Fold this sequence. Notes:
The protein has helices spanning 2-54, 64-81, 109-116, 159-209, 224-272, 281-310, 322-339, 359-375, 421-426, 434-444; strands at 84-89, 94-97, 121-126, 133-142, 148-156, 318-321, 343-347, 354-357, 382-390, 393-401, 449-454, 458-466. By secondary structure, it is of the alpha+beta class. The chain folds into 3 domains: 2-162, Beta-Lactamase; 233-310, Orthogonal Bundle (Helix Hairpins); 318-466, Heat Shock Protein 90 (2-Layer Sandwich). A 5-stranded antiparallel β-sheet has the order 2-1-5-4-3, sandwiched between helices.
Amino acid sequence: MHKKIFFRYFNACALIILLTVFALGTVTTGVFTIRSVQEQDQNMENAANKVASMLRGMPANYNIFVGTIMSGAIETVKDTISCDVIIVNQWGRIVQSTLVDPATATLPQAAVESVFSGNIYRKQGVFIESLGNAYTIGVPILDDDNSVIGCVFTTARQVRVGSAMKNVVATFVFCGLVVLMFAFVCVYFITKQITRPLNEMALAAQSYAKGDFTRRITVAPEGELGDLARTFNQMADNLDRLETMRRGFIADVSHELRTPMTTISGFIDGILDGTIPPESESKYLILVSEEVKRLSRMVNNLLDVARIQSGEISYQMAPFDLTEVAHRVLLTMEDRMQEEKINLSLHLPEESVYVMGDHDAIHRVIYNLVDNAVKFTPENGEITVGLYRRDGKVFLSVKNTGQGIPEDEAGRIFERFYKTDKSRGENKKGVGLGLYMVKSIIDAHGEDIFISSKEGVYAEFTFTLKEAQEDF
């Protein structure tokens, strides 16, 4: 993984660096070329004007003394700016030159006429065949009354510009290579820091795929990778907890199924082989029927959980009397509470209280809450069921005395398959689905359910429903 990410990052950085160096080099060389040409143009024009000023008022019949002055001026300018100088007299003939033979060479007539007209001549291209491509500037030579008596041409190949350009390009290439080497080292260490937690996550994911959820990722102090590592570890904690709950659920379901199945099988075998006398068969068949109903309820709960998870359950919202539903649930639990020697305290209004919701689903909510209260209420304990209105809501609460719910477990009490440590010791019935179904149904209604508990004293569950309008 490290090599793949490293080369991707390095290729991206290298491309950016190369494009940047190329763009900067192109702009720099362009600017440098323009400024060099401008500087050379100015220097050549100054050199031509210098020679022209030295020859100002030069007589038409050049004597040896004047020729000596010309030669000196030409050599001075040539040594200063490294260009060739050509001096032309008033008849258009070359009288002095550092480039061509004055006796045989000729100049473009248009160039000579342009300078004799008082203009400054400039041309990039072929001025003299023997010189080839060059840059040429021509200025007039004036006499004392400012009449044109000749002209001076300075011409030069752009060798210095090309040489300087090569130095600039070489500098940019060198800098680009240095930056690439530096980027290679930086990207290597950066990608190593990035891929280390990613490699740990890959190894941890392989462990999770094998069912081992104990491995954790070393968390970076901050940044996106740190957040990702913390989220990954949180996911692992949840998976580990869910796996523990799943195993506990399988163990509980296996126990719950094995006990009634053993009872049913034993009683039926006893009836078939005559171990149970005919006069006692009815008694044992009643026990078999109760165990079958218990199995049926368990299977239905598991099916309902599966339907809730898949979103297949649809609730039929309609107004119904919540007080009546509460009374019916308590009536079905009356014999059981009497057997457990549990006292019942009711705080239900005498009049009907109508709410909006699914009648059967809310019946199951109340049944599961009361059933849970009966399981964990000690002998001679008390269960209190109350109902009241407030701000357009109806609140129904189920409270029981007993051990209550530990504060650190209250947040997880509605999780699927979850059973508190105390419930595992006090009550072996159930697989931790009742309160999960309660929370799922209330959430589907868009309402809330609250827990109030004091460990060792009581536990109270309260849920809300929207009160139905009177004119329904």
